[in-house]
Amino acid sequence: MPTINASKYGYLVQSSTTSFIALRNATTALQVNNQPTGNKIAARFRYLTGSKGSEWQMHRSYWAFDVSAYQSGYTITDLEVKFDPTNSTTTNFPIAIIKSTAQGNANSNLVSGDWDSLDFNTLYSDNSSSNYWPDTNNVSTIELNSTAISAFSTGYLKLCVVWWFDYTGTGGLVSPTTINAYQNMTYVPRLEFTATATGYGNSVIGVASENIGSIIGVSTADIDKVIGV
Fold first, then answer.
1. Strand pairing partners for 83?
2. 95: closest CA among 81, 107, 110?
């Protein structure tokens, strides 16, 4: 089962004193964190209010994988992303994993302008508000869907981890709250999957399916050159 580590990963922080929608639809981040280590907040929603007004804050994480080695010639199944959460996470913190358009060809650091480098219309994880960030110190996995698998054909799979109600756009909570998804960033996020070589659908004795091209196209008159007779 192949494993591919994220070649670029990090998180962005943004806040607003105007509204949740202004925060969600902002175009730049206030803080940029690339290849962090230690325990950090991968995803967050915070709403504070007081005599000086209100503030909304969120974290979004971006993980980019170079999957070009499996871009063609393979059928990809059982795709999962592995990461190391911590038990400092808020219980039942719902997350969505969606398409990211940041980090170039999985080779560029995040910049402030990547706050909106994501696609809320392309969901890469289970479509459910009960898809919780694990509240545990153990390495964990989240299954990715067929849409994520289809991104292999581009050579790059780039993920953005967000609070579920950031994904849906319905996060304007009326009561002050702070909820966090913590992650041990020293453990680099990684993909695990099954890659089955494509090729001729029937077995040929002694020939791997990925090498069938060496036989296809040989005329019957020349078959002795293949079987050695």
1. 140
2. 81
Give the pLDDT of residue 206: 62
How far apart (Å, rounded) are the C-alpha atoms in residues 47 and 56?
A: 5
Token pair for 186: 């020293």
Strands 140-143 and 190-197: unpaired
CA dihedral sign of residues 203, 205, 208, 214: negative
User: Is residue 95 a contact partner of residue 131, using CB atoms and an 8 Å limit?
Assistant: yes
Taking the C-alpha atoms of residue 79 and residue 228, their distance in angstroms, rounded to an integer, is: 41
Two tokens at 53?
């007004």
Q: From the CA atom positions of the chain, what is the Rg in Å?
A: 22
Consecutive 10-residue runs of the chain (229 residues): their mean pLDDT?
97 96 97 98 95 93 98 97 97 97 98 98 93 96 98 98 96 86 98 90 58 54 54
Alpha helix ranges (H) inside 70-163? 146-150
CA angle, corner 87, sides to 86 and 88, nearest 5?
A: 90
Beta-bridged to residue 159, according to DSSP, are 63, 99
φ and ψ of 226, to 5 deg: -90, -45
CA distance 178 to 56: 10
Distance CA 85, CA 82 (A): 10
Residue type, 219: S
Listed residue (68, 9, 22) closest to 172, CA to CA: 22
The residue ranges of every structural domain in the chain are: 3-198, 204-229
For Cα atoms 143, 136, 132, give the angle at the middle one, nearest 5 degrees: 45
